Each structure stands twice: as C-alpha cells, then as structure tokens.
Amino acid sequence: MSDRTANSPLGGYLSAAVPGGWFATRDHKRIGLMFAAWTTGALLLGLMFGILPMVRSLGGMEDDAGGVLRALTYQRLILVFMFLAPAIPAVLGHFLLPLQLGARNLALPVFSLWSLRLYAAGLVLALASVLAGGVSFGWTMPTPLSLTGDGVFWLLAAGLACSGFSWFLVGVNIIVTVHHHRAPGLGFFRMPLLSWSLYLGAYLLVMSGLILAIIVLYLAGARGTGRGLFGPDADPLLWLNYFWFATRPVVFFALVPAAGVVFDVVAGIGRKAVTGYRMVVGSMIALLALSVVTWGVHLSGYGQAPHLTFVFSVLSLLGAVPVALIAYSLLATLHRGAIACSAPTTFTVAFVLHAGIAAVMGLFLASPALGAYLNTTMFATAQIDYVMWGGVLGAFLAGLHFWWPKMTGRPVNHPVGRFGAFLYLIGVNLAFFPQVIQGVGGAPVDVGALEPGPTGLTEIAALGWLFLVSGLIVAIGNLVGSLWVKEAAGDNPWGACTLEWTTASPPPVDNFAVRPAGGDPYGT
Description:
It contains 18 helices and two strands. The protein is mainly α. The chain has one domain: Cytochrome C Oxidase, Chain A. The chain has a two-stranded antiparallel ribbon. Helix 13 packs antiparallel against helix 15 and helix 16 runs antiparallel to helix 18. The chain is globular and about 65 Å long. It starts with a strand and ends in a 43-residue tail after the last helix. 56% of the residues are buried.
C-alpha cells in the first residue's frame, strides 16, 4: 500500500503521512488510538451480551436458559480478557508512556504493531466462536464441564490465546522502554506514577498473558483428545488453580494501573504534587507481589483444603495495608488542591467510590468463613463488576478526558462530560449493588439472569444499566464530537508538569523537537 496522508486539520502526528496505512504504522500514538477503537468495540460487545440476560430477567423474551448462559459466558470473557486487563496498558500505555519518559517511541515498535494485530485477531476469533454456536459453560471454563460442553471451543481458545500473547508483547515493550528509553536525568523515582503503574503492571501482563495462552491451548487439546493435563480424569481444582493464578493478577489488580492514571489526573486537575510519592510506589510494588500469591482466595468454597484457604486469606487481607496507604495519598493530594471542576474530576470521584467498594468487598471475600459462602454467590460477580465497570472503566474515562487535548489537540466539553460521568456513577451503583444484596441473600452466581420475571431488584438493576449505557454514550459522544471543534486546546491546558505536556498538542511524529531532560514529575 502506498503512503497516505491523513489530511487532518488536527495537526501533529494525525496529519503526517502514514507509510502503508494506519494498520502498518509503528507510531505508538496511532497504535494507542487504534487500541482505543478496538477496546471500545470489546466494551460495546460486552454491553450487547449483557442485554440478553437483563431482558429475560424482566420477562421480555421466551425461556432460553442456554442462550442466557452463552451470553453471560461471552460477556465475562470479552469484558475481562479484552477490556478490563488490556485497556489501560494498551491504550494509555502505548500513547503516553514514551511521552512521559521523553522518548520518541516505544522501545520495540514491531511488538506494538503485533500486539495490536493479535488483539484484533483474538477479538474476531471470539466473535466467530459465537457465530459458530458459542459455548455456555461459564467464563472460568471449569473442568470437566468445559470438556463436554457444546459450541466450537477451539475458536474461542485461539482467540483467548491471541489475547494472552498480545498482553505478553505489550508487557515486554513497556518494561524494555522504561529500562532503556528514559530521558536524561529521569531516574526511576522521577517517573510519573502512571509510568510506574504501567511498568509494574507490565510484569503481570508478561506472566499472566503467557500462562493464559498456554493453559487455554492445553484445555482445547484436552477437550479434543480426552487426555492431557486438564483431561476428564484430572482434579477440577487443578484447572481452577492455573486459571486464577493466571488471571487474578491482571483482573483484580488492574486497579493498580487505574490508580496510576488517577494519581496523574488528580495532580493535574488539583495543580498539586502527589502526597507520599515514594509511599505510593512502595504500595504498588507490595500489591504486585501479593497479586501473584493470593490466587487461592477464589477457591474458598470450591473444595480447597482449609489450611490453604487460611494462608491465602491472610495474604489477601495483608493487601488492605497498601490499599489504605494509596487511598490516603490520593485523598491527601486532593486536600486543599486547586481542583478544576471538569469531566476528569467527576470520573475520578466515581473511581474512588467504586474502587473503595470493590476493596471492601474483597475483604469479605478474603475472610476464611465468609469467603467460603460469598465466593459461590452473586456477591463475587458483583465485586468483579465493581472492579471492571466502576474502577478500571472510571479511571480509563478520567484519563481519556484528561489527556484528550494532548491526544487530539481539541478540548472536550466539560459540562457535557460531567453530565455523562454523573449518569455513569449513578448507573454503576444501581446496576450492581442489587447483586451485592442478592449475593448476601445466598443467590448463586448469575441466578438472577436465569429466573425470568421482574423481582424488584432486577428492575432497579435494569434502570441502572439504562443510566450506565446513557452515561457512556454521552461520554464517548463528547470525546468524538470534540474532533469537529475548531478551537485548539493548547499545549498544556491543565498546567501540569509531566513531560507529555511540554510538547505540542497533538504531538509531532517524533514527539519532541528536542529531547527534554528529566526532572520532578510534579514540579516540586
């Protein structure tokens, strides 16, 4: 394909010639934008799959438990593996990390391109498996149920393996970039907290992505041959141990990169240095370590030995200490800051609320006595929803609204953005808190979707989904609509001090005319 020019009035990298077209580019900024488009598509697919169980719960369709189970399976699989885990590292990480480090590009541009291609292939293959009949054995794919269930599993397995290898490439690229492409004078403890969180989370992406890809392919082999590590004669707990060891770090600890986003947003909108910078970094490192040794907390109530449950519970409860320190630092940074009343501010408030709720729910699930009961109920699924919809998505939207002027050179409409964030905040709690109530009452996982007819709580959850979807439409529409605004945003509309704000908006192809020198990320 010949060179093409974007002919964009936005300027910077968006107006530069693209050799081979966008899908052949190695520019980290363009790849970040394409990741944004693909992950938004995954989010919309997850929303679509979530509509079917909700409509059936309200009595709006015929009795089809198999279809509902398929919808629930794919909703979780797509949202967890193709949005929750990769969204912040793949989108904000690709676009912002080189800018924050004063680099021209990520260290391994080929890895950037292939991580995008593998991600796109994984999402397409997962969707193809739906069109081929789909599977309905749940998103954790427990054995032996997943060995005998219906559907074309090999397509889904190939899609998840592609997704895992994509995580791996993203993680390696971030790690190498941080080690070898920092600006002169930019030591580790001068990096912004977003860069720190991406760097630490990259180790989890490397480990979890590789393990997830391998075990899913092993499972597909066991399904096809009836033998192997996860065959019909294997202990069902073996698969669950491998699955949660691979997924817990990137699923539940996806809040670590989310916290990095929020810290940089808070420092920018509050025009204030982060309180306890080194304490936050240490807390993130502690959470990184705990994430890889606490997978067994998810097996409480599923036949795990009591002494193992106790050990995993103690380790999980230790996570409350670094979480509390991070929360203290975030609130202290906001205290007496010159906070801008903007769309990122409202999304940040939503993140703090929802991440706090998810953390408290995690304490209950980590308790040896309560966890054995709650892990098998809708309480556990509600926690995942609060992490995903309330925590990671809230931080992701806060980051997009904060850095959108840098990404596109155009300002967002903040009153409209605040309205969308307000709808989103209300929607998340109306949609998912009924699950908490049902879970405490003993309702098994997703049973509400399997019992047709309104129940009161179901109607409240449906109203919440209406608010949530409306808020997302307003927020995304506000971002996309800003591209047609003729007014320029300016190079640094927030008065922030990190290096990405020292270059033009949108940045040129090489990011900086002269490579900047590192300094204190928050101007203290």
